[in-house]
Amino acid sequence: MYGGALMVAVGVFYLAFERKLLAKSRMSGDSTAPADNLFSRSLIGAQIGLILLAMVVTRSSAMSLQAKTGLPRGNQIVGLRQVAPLIMPFLHRLQPNNHYLHRLMVIFLTFAPTFVLLTISYEGLFYLAFSATLITWVLLEHSIYTYSITSAKKSGTGVPEVPASLSSSPFRSLTLTDARISLFFLTLLQSAFFSTGNMASISSFSLESVNRIIPVFDPFSQGGLLILKLMIPFALISANLGILNKRLGVAPSALFMVVIAISDFLTLHFFWVVKDEGSWLEIGSTISHFCIASLLCLFVASLEGVSELFIAGVEVEDNSSQLGKERELGGIVMGKEPQNAVNGAAKPTEKGKRN
Fold first, then answer.
1. Are 133 and 236 in contact (CB under 8 A)?
2. pLDDT in tens, 109-144
3. CA dihedral angle for residue 292, residue 297, residue 300, residue 301, rounded to 10 degrees
4. Is the separation of the CB atoms in 298 and 148 below 8 Å?
5. How far apart, in whole angstroms, are the C-alpha atoms of residue 50 and residue 109?
6. How many angstroms separate the CA atoms of 262 and 266, rounded?
7. Which of 36, 69, 134, 258 lies 20 to 30 Å (CA to CA) from residue 100?
8. Taking a C-beta distance cutoff of 8 angstroms, is the pair 327, 162 a contact?
9. pLDDT in tens, 49-76
10. The pTM is what?
11. Residue 185 near residue 124 (C-beta atoms within 8 A)
């Protein structure tokens, strides 16, 4: 319940200081929708109300089950209807606020009621802390990239030259620092997978959380609710990486491709450590590690689709537009003419002198 109370506090704080937060987080050139969008604010208020309703239903259901009086019919109906908040991001598109921070808040409040209903211990606090970590990560990575460009210009080194063939591209090329972002993503991905349980818990999990919604044993429905609970952190991290991909100005899916490449390396490593001799535990462990690493590549690819679904319409001006101002078509890059053009202009002059 503490996690739900903190989620409500975060939502109320955002509603109260939305204008200041969006103005403070605005970078140069950001396309920001007005913070006084009444329809969007009303939807956020409704999402906060759904979190409060989930807290009341969870508390009432837990007390009824502890008293062994059964689950009230009304609580069961309301609990099943708590899946409805998942459509909230699509309702926000009717009158969207395209600021990236607003979109992340909408996604955070979308999954909060479901997490409150299915929590039995610290999961609500984990959801809040994990979301705060992801937003901080997005802000820090963009600040680091902006600072690196600014410091390079002040020191006189300037931005690295871009090949003439890529000068017309609206996106910047990948650099070594993007590998750091991908490694952070993999670390957060593992944290999202193992912090609230893993796939092994599907066969042995506490029925206390799902009994608040489905009191009768149903392996398919209850297992589906458990999988939904496990997938929520992955939806959050995919949306944050998608927004970071836009803010850094790299090509769409570029960071996801780097993550998949690193996952392929892990898969190759686990392939060479697979054992076909020894105890069954050793053989099974090595094979399972290889299978998990192999499926990780497919899973990251699916997260890319989830990211595109959640961040569609977000408008940010990446720093590649600043580089685009310093590029020109025709092979002139960073204000320098290509050597071929210089030589080509010099040759007629030399021939003219000989003549």
1. no
2. 999 888 888 887 778 888 999 999 999 999 999 888
3. -140
4. no
5. 9
6. 6
7. 258
8. yes
9. 988 988 888 888 878 877 777 777 777 7
10. 0.77
11. no
Angle 323-331-321 from CA coordinates, rounded to 5°: 15
Copy the structure tokens of residue 329. Answer: 């078509």
Residue found under tokens 């963009």: 142
CA distance 124 to 297: 28
Alpha helices in the chain (DSSP H): 2-16, 18-24, 38-66, 73-81, 88-91, 100-118, 123-155, 177-194, 208-211, 219-247, 254-272, 280-310, 320-325, 339-354
Would you state the structure tokens that stand for residue 104, as one six-digit string?
């992340």
The rounded distance, in Å, linking the Cα atoms of 216 and 221 is 10
CA dist list (Å): 156 to 141, 203, 317? 23, 60, 24
Per-residue pLDDT reduced to its tens digit, 290-334:
888 888 778 888 888 888 888 877 766 544 444 443 333 333 334
What phi, psi does 327 have (nearest 5°)? -110, 155
Q: Which of 16-25, 98-107, 181-190, 303-312 has the lowest mean pLDDT?
A: 16-25
Task: For residue 328, give both structure tokens.
Answer: 């020109």
